[in-house]
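Now for a sample.
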Amino acid sequence: MLGDPEELRGVAIKVTRIITDRYIKQIGSLKSENKFVPTVSCCCCKCRSGKWKEAVPFVDELDVKEPVARVAIFGANYSTEALRDTSETELGLSYNTKEEELVNIFVRLICNADRNLKKKIFKKAHLDLNEILPHTYRGSDEEWNLYEFYRKPGIRVDQEAEDHYKDRLASYMEPDKYGYRLGTTDELDKLQQQKDV
């Protein structure tokens, strides 16, 4: 099991990179008043007595209120609180969980941000479900909701025409409004299985 601060920092860095790669179109569409978009990452802190779920901090407010910072804070805080609120069995965690497995768990939690989690989680993590993000995606004036930033984009696995994936998306996804993000065939297969049930 991971517990060393450097190992947990490595997990945080990998999660940040994967999420950035997956949502690069959406991140690039966020409006900013600054010429340079701030970079944001979160670090996990030390593990005490094997109770690493209690030791993982959430990211608090940054000095800037840039949309990209709010998206990063939401992802970090949401995944941390969801991790604390979900059983280890449901998450697929065990004492022998490897780094890559933990990275995948965090990425899955962020990409599938579930509004049905207990409202106390959102309150505890200082998350506003109705916060609006300014954006320039396709010149649309439709508002993007912070909560929906991670959950609503469609999923594509390569550079094929995005319409190729429309029939494999979940009903809650809105690719016309939020665009498509990079995903995996495994994600698309799981969505298809859920639709077939």
